[in-house]
Design a protein that fits this description.
By secondary structure, the protein is mainly alpha-helical. It is built from seven helices and two strands. A two-stranded antiparallel ribbon has the order 1-2. α6 crosses α7. It is globular. It starts with a helix and ends in a 15-residue tail after the last helix. It is a multi-pass membrane protein. It comes from Collichthys lucidus. Keywords: Cell membrane, G-protein coupled receptor, Membrane, Receptor, Transducer, Transmembrane, Transmembrane helix. Its main location: membrane.
Amino acid sequence: MVLISMDRYVAICHPLHYSTQITQKRVQVCICLCWICSVIFQGILQNHTMKLQDTNPCSRECMIVVDHVSVLADLIFSFIVPITIIVLLYMRVFVVAVSQAHAMRSHIATVTFQKTGKVMAKKSELKAARTLGVVIVVFLLCFCPYYCAALVDENFHTASNANIVIFLVFFNSCLNPLIYALFYPWFRKSIKLIVTLKILQPDSCDANML
């Protein structure tokens, strides 16, 4: 989401430099670095963040002991730092979006066909930014309970309660496709092609997604 936020920031705040700054090669390198860093970081934390306690206080009850140092490191590098970057970028995007909205309303009566195309492109960029904003809010709602529970309670309550907040973390990934389907008709059409297996047909590449 940080990379997407950076993409939206450049597209809206520096549109003239977008094609030179956001190249396919740079995008591929950034995505690979994200995966590599995530695998290394999570691999280091895997054996330290949460451990099942051997001695249970009650019969048939499983306790999860949290290493606060690991959880704090995870909180800082996986949550606070990315969210801070996203919020700062979105504050700038919001300021530019508001100014562009005022500009479009003030000149809407005099735009030519060519300018109308530019206005529609700007609206598309702003819609993408709004969609990402919703994704970020859902991300916060799903991840905040986990970090709050892990930091507040050393024993992380019972394993069943831990399962609830951990479920929310994974459920966040399930919600993202629903959010995109809600905002983009072409996304719904693409999902329909995949579910109905029409994407396997030779003429699927010619399907109209707009």
